[in-house]
Amino acid sequence: MELTRRTFLKLGAAGAATFAINGSLSGAARAMELKLGGKDISRLTRKERQAIPSTCMQCVTACGIIGYVEDDRLVKLEGNPEASNNRGRMCARGQAGVNQVYDPDRILYPMRRVGQRGEGKWKRITWDEALNEITAKLKAVRDGGKPEEFVFHYGRNRMSWILDPFMNAFGSASVGNHTSICEASKFVAQQSMWGPYQDVNDVANAKYILVMGCNPLEAHTVHNALCQRVIDARAAGARMVTFDVRLSNTAARSDRWYPIKPGTDGLVALAMANVIIQNGLYDEEFIETWTNVTVDELKEHLAQFTTEMAARESGVPAADIEKIAVEFATIKPSTVISYRGMVSHYNGMMNERCVMLLEAIAGNIDVKGGRCLKRTGKWANPFGSPKEAKAKIGAVDPKKDYPLAAHKVAQEVLPRIGKGEGKVQVYWTYCINPPYVMPDGNRQMEVLKDEKAIPFHVCSDAYYSENAALADLILPDATYLERYDPETSPSFTIVPFIQVRQAITNPLGESRPTQDVLMELARRLGIGDFLNGIKDSAEYLRKAADATEGLKDVGGWEYIRKVGAWYDKGKKPDYKSYAKELKPEDLKPKSKDERIVVDGKTGTVYKLDKDHPDKYESDKQYVGIRIGGKYYKGFKPYKFPISGKFEIRSALMAKYGFPELPTYIPIPTHQSMKPDELILTTFKVNVHTQSRTQNCKWLTEIHNDNAVWINPVTAAKRGVADGDLVKVTSKVGSMEVRARVTEGIHPGVVAVSFHSGHWQYGRYCSGKKAPAGVGDGEDRHVWWKNFGVLPNLIIPVATDPIGGGQAYMDTVVTVDKTQAGRG
Amino acid sequence: MADKRFGMVIDLRRCHGCKACQVACKSENDVPLGVWRSWVKEVEQGTYPNVKRHFLPRLCNHCEHPACVRNCPTGASYKRPDGVVLVDRNKCIGCRYCIASCPYQSRFLLADEKVADKCTFCAHRVDQGIVPACVNTCIARARIFGDLNDPNSEVRQLVDSHPVQVLKPEAGQSPSVFYIGADDNAMRGSEAG
Amino acid sequence: MNASIVYDVFHVNPFGWVVAVYFTVSAMAAGAFLLAAAVNLLGLKGQQAVGRTAALVAPLAGALAGLLLIAELGRPTRFWRVFTHFNPASPVSWGAFILLAFIIIAVLYARTVLAGKEEGSRGLVAAGAALACLIPVYTGFELVRGRVSPLWNSPLIPVLFFFAAGVVGLSAVVLIGSALTAGVARRLGASGVAAAGDGVAPAAGLGKTIAFFLAGSLVLVVIQLLALAGASTEAVTIVRKVLAGRFAVLFWGGYLAVGTVVPFVIFTGRGAGNRTLQALASLLAVLGVFALRLVDIIGGQSFPLN
Q1: pLDDT digits 0-9 by tens, A356-387
Q2: Which chain A residue lies closest to B53 (C-alpha atoms)?
Q3: Mutation to test the B interface, candidates C15, C72, C79, C81, most B Cβ within 10 Å
Q4: A597 lies within 8 A of chain B by CB
Q5: How buried is residue A577: exposed, middle or buried, by Cβ count under 10 Å (0-12/13-18/19+)?
Q6: List of domains in chain B
Q7: Which of C19, C72, C75, C83 to mutate to test the interface with B (most CBs of B within 10 A)?
Q8: Which CATH class is domain A5-103+489-509+539-567?
Q9: A533 contacts: CB under 8 Å, gap ≥ 6
Q10: Taking residues A4-8, what's their average pLDDT?
Q11: Which of A18, A250, A702 lies at the smallest CB-CB distance from B141?
């Protein structure tokens, strides 16, 4: 497609928005303007560069990209104009992806530890040696009859297409993740109410955007797509109000910024819900038809959450809460964007339930401009499906302590392994860096160093991370620009799409995609039946593309490898998908073992079969919901067997002794704070992603050192001036960090970004070459000398008892000027 | 028909300071660390809780009357008929008077090549009908590029229909980069805090 | 309302101390030649040795200035490019040709002086003097046109540079003259006048002339600072930096006390006849001008433009 600015302007809602802000553009504008992208020219030779579409992985957003290649070298990345989410644009992180491939500190061959674990002494070995060693270890685990003692712990996993069948075939369900250090409590809340986790704020069509505890203009799941549409909506006149402890760029670009006490956002949402209900501004039809509570029940329950009470707790003036509530309910469409500032608390899961309640009573659920269910594309799977493994060690999924933590409790995996909750023989880490990203990093490190707790640690990484430094064997992973994955992401056009991730360049050195390593191991271990003879990830993707519904009709692999993305061009957004009526055949049993029954009380239509012979206990049994004699798709459960209605009242919560209606849970550690204590929160900046982009020189050049934000009033009380070194002390440790005295933060809070303070991960962010680092990169031009601090080292492990999420934003600290004074 | 005059409009009502342009430029033009052809300045002002942060994307203004070209002794710095101001690396002797004379600090000396360098409006792309890299990647679509001499171009129409601003109009350079909605404090050079 | 820059990139200043040396040395060449020209053209009796010393100092300083200028380029081997292109709008372009022509004439004149035939070369001297006058003008214009900086964009700068040329050019002659051995001094004073002892003894008038240029410089500097003190925010910031900030030691100590007041007192006071004191005063005067150039160049770039 020839995408010029002119044609771009004609595209859909975004185009309309651009017109609106840019005022009276002549309709007769001549089509002469330059192309916006899709093509790149060499600066030196002036020749067109080879273009290969793929998918970004600098964060989880999965933007469509085009890699430009010159002399077999990746020289530039751009957004893919064919990708409907990011529409040809890319953020700073994505632009810096080139740095990931050519990081001089990349690990380019397998290495085996020679000294003590963590000593940093390594020996280069061959892939054959490495694979022989792993195969022998894993065979021993399997032959010992305890496959669950092989623990696979991943972080950013975009390869579940191979990891899941591999682990199932192996027989271990001991798979750790990292969701709970991010948004697990949000996901659990959503699963308890409307089924699937994640949401898509259809802000492109919204007129009123409430941002609560998140920063969509700088960082978000599916950031770029959301960010673009927030800006379009704002340009088209949408209002935006932001609650945040600090002036993020989102807060700065809002009509109003409300600093708020950490952990009270949910209460403010409840108070707004109360205003809406008491003033009759609610969506009666949705509440009465699609939720499992009545307006009267809500009226009674919400009455306790007065704006005065919310004001007292949160610091947001009562009159403002009232005003925003009325605006939210009357300036339609409206929606709330909420994320880690809302859920990364002790009460995080409940806070998100409060927001979901607010969205529901305002009639925003899955409507145009509201909070929508996610639409993701579906790839065919040319692999077989090994039987799901069930055996797992308690440490990776402590259901006994956190019965509803459906996304596990990543921050407790290593501490629990350290305490002996399940024996481990092989611990394999992939794309995760526990000492750096998890709370109480020192404790995480202790366990990683403990050879009794973890006898054998395999690490797949392209970089010498703090975690890789504590491994026994390092397998050099390919970067995301050198590998293959089927991709999709929640669609902001509300029309699902799929994208391809394909190698733009060949893996550097001896690096090899972990996907291919797992396939090779499956063959070596004799558990490779599920591979169906597929050799490697490239072949998997070719076969998957050629078998994928819709894509195969336009050319399958040949289409997507050239275009990069596919979606059904004829499909329109299907808002209110829950209200779709079921077809008669949907209600018929699929086999003679099955029976379809309806729960007389809830209306849930579900099937009974040999796995579930007598009651509704699994989301897999769900068929639909009967309302007023009609059968609808309803809110399809995921993991939790909810009714199919939007569950404001949760039987699931009640079952485990948690409040069944959305309510306010004060954070225990905040109730007994001394006058000089402050709350430490952390945040992301717009040029970094968690821990994994600091080796990118272009990003670290922008953000290398970090400083703790402190309000001038708070600073003055401690005799702290801008730039002074201060000591921030929590119950698990302290750190010395520069103070940034700014009016843009709540006086009771100090905030620091969490992308700095690496002590490994290469020269650009730690000042240290990796053991296998090669060349001098651009060392001669590196001008920054400070690498900042890592707040995670002083943040204790603190888990939301319901959602399982790590409460990163709750840490109580003291802040004092250091002896050294000015830094 | 009159010559083209390329120019840019940066709509600060849309910019949110993401710095994608800043990194895209490093990548597209292989700009070393420590020097920038394109960057985004941020200014904070106000008193808690009424605080604002402003963003000001910066690049060479490709002035109509460029001081750098006037001061260049060798003709290495030159302005093309389409208004793009460039440096011929083969002619540059590294005397740095162009760097000193630019009122916008848009120029720098390359540490390895020892010649002056700056934003080229991605002339290598523009010459083949593609917008500069910063415009291509701008998430906010805050950057609009085109021919100021074309009455139908979007940049021309924006300049004509909006109260646009340029940096340091008093410097008499007649920049080809226009801002919509720029904050005075962000545009001022003062380091007074 | 307080505004603070929370993110910006840094810019390496294009000019450093080498440029200050170049400005000082080129001024020295110009000043020395003008002295030589004055002696020659005005036929100053009793100053022939001084004039000859000056005639030798001028080409040496001029050549040194040229070499500094080339060495200071990013690409010194390409220096010839300034001569294959002429940009009438560029002070550097003018300057290159002026300096080259000056060096050639200064060398030719030095040869005639060494050959003892300087009396027959008045045309050459006149041309050299004209070029010498242009040197402080074009170097001044390099600053005036150099950057949007309150310290630089003043029409007083070329005049100030002219006075500086007077200070350093004459001081250099005094200094070098006093260091010459008796033999060389005798040769320079071949016509038999003013060669005495083991050096070239300047007439007292020379010291007084330097004192005049020192005072003139100071007046111009004061005028400039007074003018700036009430101007833009940037100008006020810079004046504050010069008088009380980063550059205060260089300005008060280096330029004013050591480089202006002390030599002025020596040249105008009772020590005027003492050759050692005169040499010392000359050295200090040169250093004073250099200190002021450092303040001008580094101070003038010491604030961000945007």
Answers
A1: 999 999 999 999 999 999 999 999 999 999 99
A2: A252
A3: C81
A4: no
A5: middle
A6: 6-187 (3.30.70.20)
A7: C75
A8: mainly beta
A9: none
A10: 47
A11: A18
In CATH, what number does C17-300 get? 1.20.1630.10
Neighbours of A284 (CB within 10 A): 12
Q: Is C9 on the interface with B (CB under 8 A)?
A: yes
Q: Does A7 touch chain B (CB under 8 A)?
A: no
Give percent of chain A with pLDDT exceeding 70: 96
Q: Does C78 touch chain B (CB under 8 A)?
A: yes
Within chain A, which residue ranges are assigned CATH 3.40.50.740? 111-181+391-481
Query: Per-domain residue ranges for chain C?
Result: 17-300
Tell me the HSE value of A46 on the side-chain side, using a 13 A CA sphere.
Answer: 6
A231 Rama class: left (phi>0) / alpha (psi -120 to 50) / beta = alpha
C83 touches chain B (CB under 8 A): no
Residue A555: left if φ>0, alpha if ψ -120 to 50, beta else—which one?
left
Residue C116 confidence (pLDDT): 83
Residues of chain B found within 8 Å of residue C153, distances taken between Cβ atoms: none
Which chain B residues are Cβ-neighbours of C12 within 8 angstroms? 34-35, 108-109
The alpha carbon of residue B131 is apart from the nearest alpha carbon of chain C, in Å, by: 24
CATH architecture of the domain formed by A184-372: 3-Layer(aba) Sandwich (3.40)
Of residues A57, A219, A77, the one with CA closest to residue B133: A77
User: How distant is the Cα of C297 from the closest Cα of chain B, in angstroms?
Assistant: 11
User: What topology does CATH give the domain A111-181+391-481?
Assistant: Rossmann fold (3.40.50)
Nearest chain A alpha carbon to B35: A781
Instruction: Please report, in tens digits, the pLDDT of each residue of chain B (193 residues total).
Output: 568 999 999 999 999 999 999 999 999 999 999 999 999 999 999 999 999 999 999 999 999 999 999 999 999 999 999 999 999 999 999 999 999 999 999 999 999 999 999 999 999 999 999 999 999 999 999 999 999 999 999 999 999 999 999 999 988 999 999 999 998 878 875 443 3
Q: Nearest Cβ partner of B109 from C14, C87, C89? A: C14
Cβ burial of A775 (10 Å; 0-12, 13-18, 19+) is: exposed
Percent of chain C's residues with pLDDT above 90: 64
- Beta-ladder partners of A512: A477
Question: How far is C-alpha A118 from the geometric centre of its chain's CA atoms?
Answer: 30
Q: Do C90 and B53 touch (CB under 8 A)?
A: no
- Chain C residue numbers with beta carbons less than 8 Å from the beta carbon of B166 are none
**Of C137, C132, C130, nearest to C157 (Cα)?**
C137
At A599, is the secondary structure helix, strand, or coil?
Answer: coil
A69: contact with B, CB 8 A cutoff: no
- DSSP-based three-state secondary structure for A512: strand
Give the ipTM. 0.97
Query: Chain A contact for B82, CB < 8 A?
Result: no
Cβ distance C3 to B44 less than 8 Å, yes or no, reads yes
State the architecture of A668-822 in CATH terms: Beta Barrel (2.40)
Q: What are phi and psi of C187, to 5 degrees?
A: -60, -45
- Taking chain A, what is the end-to-end CA distance rounded to the nearest angstrom? 54
> Does the beta carbon of A143 lie under 8 angstroms from any beta carbon of chain B?
no
One-letter amino acid at A818 equals T
What would the two tokens of residue B133 be? 């890299």
Look up residue C181 and give its two tokens.
Answer: 């051995």
Q: Where in chain A is the domain with CATH 3.40.228.10?
A: 184-372
Computed from CA positions of residues A541, A543, A549, A550, in that sequence, does the dihedral angle turn out positive or negative?
Answer: positive
Say whether C74 and B103 touch across the interface (CB within 8 A): no
User: What local confidence, expressed as pLDDT, does residue A7 receive?
Assistant: 44
Which residues of chain A form CATH 2.40.40.20? 668-822
For β-strands A622-627 and A604-608, DSSP reports them as: antiparallel
Task: Give bridge partners of residue A630 from the DSSP assignment.
Answer: A627
